[in-house]
Design brief:
It is a single chain. With about 260 residues, the chain is α/β, with parallel strands linked by helices. It has helices at about 15-30, 40-50, 65-80, 105-130, 145, 155-175, 190-200, 205-210, 220-230, and strands at about 10, 30-35, 55-60, 85-90, 135-140, 180-185, 245. Strands 3-2-1-4-5-6-7 form a seven-stranded parallel β-sheet, sandwiched between helices. Helix 1 links the parallel strand 1 and strand 2.
């Protein structure tokens, strides 16, 4: 396969925030992009922006908590854009509250979206990657999954599980032309972060604490996360697999 060849990318949570930035950046890199999200109207807006810039994209209805929805979305993408080669799991959800306030329904929702969701997507897409003998899987983790994060206990556990799963996926497929890596954002200025913070008590204090904890003293930008994903999706990253990259303004620094 030639360097820089056009691939089909499947981006979950692609309608806004980090997912939207990833979809746009992958399109700029020359890939065809399926913008997969529950919010089909917003996904259609992202598609319009990509097409206006000369790219190729498709809005796809997706509920990562529903296996049938995941299978149908992958099948639709394979049919309309060509076989999926790049899988990006950016869909996620959380709510800030202490573990004592986590009931069973809350825990199940957090784990279902942030951990089981990516597993469903990868399980549905992997046969296509194996058939091509080429693939890139990039999961959006979180620094919460690397070092923990106050008020995000279940979320941190789900993201830590995703990091471990990605490493094992990388090992199992290292000789099959498929790489798997995790990008871990720090606090990033997205609609989800703003909604989560605003729902918490002392919202301004919570946001201030997030910024204070980052050595660069600012929130990340979705575009900064997208650049890391586009690198992992490239042919240039063909010898990089099983890695966890924090894009967090120095919030965590691996030894």
């Amino acid at each position: 396969m030639s360097n820089g060849e056009t691939r089909t990318a499947f981006v979950t949570g692609g309608a806004r925030g980090i997912g939207e930035a990833i979809a746009i950046d992958l399109a700029k890199a020359g890939h065809k992009v399926a913008v997969a999200d529950l919010r089909t109207e917003l996904a259609a807006d992202v598609v319009k922006a990509i097409e206006a810039a000369g790219g190729t994209a498709l809005a796809v209805q997706l509920d990562v908590t529903d296996e049938a929805s995941v299978i149908a979305a992958i099948a639709e993408t394979n049919e309309k854009l060509g076989p999926v080669g790049i899988v990006v799991n950016a869909a996620g959800w959380d709510d800030l509250k202490p573990f004592t306030a986590h009931d069973e329904a809350f825990r199940q929702r957090v784990v279902d979206i942030n951990f089981h969701g990516p597993l469903r997507v990868i399980h549905a897409a992997l046969p296509t990657l194996l058939e091509q003998k080429w693939g890139r899987v990039i999961n959006i983790g979180s620094d919460a999954g690397r070092v923990g994060s106050s008020l995000e206990s279940t979320y941190s556990g789900a993201k830590a599980g995703l990091i471990g799963f990605t490493k094992t996926l990388a090992r199992e497929n290292a000789r099959k032309g498929i790489t798997a890596n995790t990008v871990c954002p720090g606090p990033t200025d997205t609609p989800m972060l703003r909604e989560t913070v605003e729902a918490a008590e002392n919202a301004e204090a919570v946001l201030g604490a997030m910024v204070k904890g980052v050595p660069m003293k600012r929130l990340g930008k979705p575009e900064e996360i997208a650049g890391a994903v586009t690198y992992f999706a490239s042919d240039a990253a063909g010898y990089v697999t099983g890695q966890t990259l924090s894009v967090s303004g120095g919030l965590t620094m691996a030894g």
